[in-house]
Design a protein that fits this description.
Layout lengths: L2 H23 L1 H22 L10 H18 L2 H12 L1 H8 L3 H29 L7 H14 L1 H11 L4 H18 L11 H6 L4 H14 L4 H26 L1
Length: 252
């Protein structure tokens, strides 16, 4: 390993550790992105977890995939974006650039630092479903769902960064919440689409949140995955371009 690569790796570790601690130090971020989704899940699974879907899987297990999508995005969409917006507004992002810290390292650290919290949300939801007696998936499938959701959150994280590069922290939070909560409802992340109005069922396939949730559900019932993967890959390309443009605009 070259000296430059070793130095970059050390900087990345320091940045990740700092960003991990920053989420704990920020009560609002900890509540809205970690505690609130788990609390909502515990309420919903206690009410509907023992129902059985058409595929024979318990509603509580399916909710780990669907509600888990919301829980992961609550962390990975919001926290890196708000952190970037705060650093940019304080001039800290520019100071790092001047100091020679690669911008990509800083951004990668913020994205990676959110993943342990997203995983913690999924684990807490699975434990809540298990305590409710409505979890009937083996640990192997739950691990696959976790991997799918964490990797699938990348385009949403890029979308959040695109907003964080041009908006204030408060505006970033407002904009992303205005996207996330309606998308969660209309994608069937909280309640099954089967009980939603017909227009919602027709609208859901046009939302990327729907495709991430269905990709996770497919790990339980063996449903098709190709369309969902292609949609998420397409979104990744689009949001990466948006983040790049927003970054250059934020520097100007």
């Amino acid at each position: 390993m070259s000296t430059m690569t070793a130095t970059t790796a050390r900087v990345l570790r320091v940045e990740i550790a700092d960003d991990v601690r920053a989420i704990v130090r920020e009560p609002a971020a900890l509540f809205f992105s970690v505690l609130m989704p788990v609390g909502f899940f515990a309420l919903f699974v206690s009410l509907f977890g023992h129902q059985t879907s058409g595929s024979g899987t318990s509603a509580g297990t399916l909710m780990v995939a669907t509600f888990g999508t919301f829980g992961v995005l609550a962390v990975t969409l919001l926290n890196p974006a708000i952190s970037v917006a705060g650093d940019r507004e304080r001039g800290w992002l520019r100071a790092k650039q001047v100091s020679g810290v690669p911008t990509l390292v800083t951004l990668a650290a913020k994205m990676l630092a959110a993943l342990p919290y997203a995983l913690a949300v999924l684990v807490a939801m699975a434990v809540a479903a298990a305590l409710n007696g409505s979890l009937d998936a083996p640990i192997g499938k739950l691990l696959i769902i976790a991997v799918v959701l964490l990797l699938g959150s990348l385009p949403f994280t890029l979308l959040g960064l695109a907003v964080g590069f041009v908006a204030s922290p408060n505006a970033t939070s407002a904009i992303l919440n205005a996207f996330m909560f309606p998308a969660a409802v209309l994608s069937g992340l909280w309640m099954p689409l089967e009980i939603m109005p017909a227009f919602v069922q027709h609208l859901a396939p046009f939302l990327p949140t729907y495709h991430l949730a269905q990709l996770a559900v497919a790990q339980l019932n063996g449903g098709p995955v190709l369309v969902h993967i292609l949609v998420l890959l397409g979104m990744t390309v689009v949001t990466a371009a948006l983040a790049s443009v927003a970054y250059r605009r934020g520097r100007s």
